[in-house]
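tool=predict chain=A
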Amino acid sequence: MRFSKPLRLLSGVSLLAILGVAGFFTRDRWMPLFSPPSATAHVDEAPPPVEEPKVLKLSPQARKNLGLAARPAKPQTYWRTIQVPGTVVDRPGRSDRGVTSPAVGVVSEVHAFPGDTVRPGDRLFTLRLFSEYLQNTQKELFSAEKETQLIQEELDRLRPLAENGGLAKSKIIDIENRLRRQGALIQAHRQDLLTRGLTPQQIENVSEGEFVSTVDVVAPSLVKQAENLIPVQQAAFQEGDVHTGGFAYEVQELNAELGQQVQAGQLLITLANHSALYLEGHAFKREAPFLEKAAQNGWHIAVEFAEDDPERWPALEQSFEIRYLSNAIDTASRTFDFFIPLANQSRAYEKNDETFVVWRFRPGQRVRLHVPVEELTDVIVLPSAAVVREGPEAYVFQQNGDLFNRIPVQVLHEDRLNIVVANDGSVTPGLYLAQSAAASLNRVLKAQAASGMRVDVHVHADGTVHASH
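tool=predict ok
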């Protein structure tokens, strides 16, 4: 059906009227799109600058969680040191002792084994003698003893004749000279047998014709604790009167086996007594002047022992000083050694009627040596965890109740354990400083400032902080 022209015109007018009414009521939305920007448009203001945070507030629970402890700042003297690695080593001539065979023979019995403890005079080996020289010496001693008896009988028989004039006195003098020569020969044979390991009682039996076919090798006497080094010596094979209430040596290594034939002077066993050791430091050549100065002046060396449990041992009451410097450089490590005496600690325990010993310090144990090189006076010494760094700045935290004030300081020296701060007035002596967790305190302080929270405190001229009144 087709519409007439007047009807179409009426519909167009109605549509325009509806659009006009809708545009009037929505003018607030579409008019700004066609309006030019106003010269008085609002400009956002820049945020005010954030002040550098200085004061932090922590609850008692937070301080406990961080493990905070505060101590008063106190000026003192501090020695700047260099750290040198080292190890615990045996002291030559003092720690180990070799025991050798007194004569040619075969090991018939072994009485001590690795780990056992022995005292002076305790049996270590029994040797069956195969020494032709030792057998000949015993025979010569027996023959000399019998010859002496015959000469003495002859002298006793002829002396009365010489006194009555029936015999020339020169004959008596010749017999007495023969007797003295035999006495000297007997003394030489006895001394020879003593050095070969026979006891005085065995030598007496030899002089009576009872030859010795076995000999016991016993533990030697203790070496006197003198500073001069005593070389490894052959053991004293005699029964001595040296006895100690505890052990003297620990068997470290067997160098001969049961049934083995050994020669005179051959090493049979190695004994150890680790009561006297050395701390062997390994330093580079450029550190030699510092070490030489410390050795000359007798400066105390601080020692850190790795893998040590000091709570289970008595306190070390000894001063560590450099004894001497090595004059040779190791070609592989390019370091030279220096040596510090160490007095060891030990304890023994009983098991199966045997005594065993445990040493506190053992050869091969690692140590760290702190060698003093410079004395710093009137400085404040803090633990390394008490200072936090931000670029060139270094800060400490002063505690006043729940409040912690961050203070910039000058660091003069630091090592693995301590930091030395200049006493230049930035830290007033007597104020309490946090001894740890400085890095954590600094992070909390920055987080608190970033969150916009205010501590609402003010700082006094003397460095103390208080809540605002």
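Helices lie at 5-25, 27-34, 60-66, 132-163, 169-195, 200-207, 288-297, 438-450. The chain has four domains: 5-32, 55-78+377-467, 84-92+273-373, 96-271.
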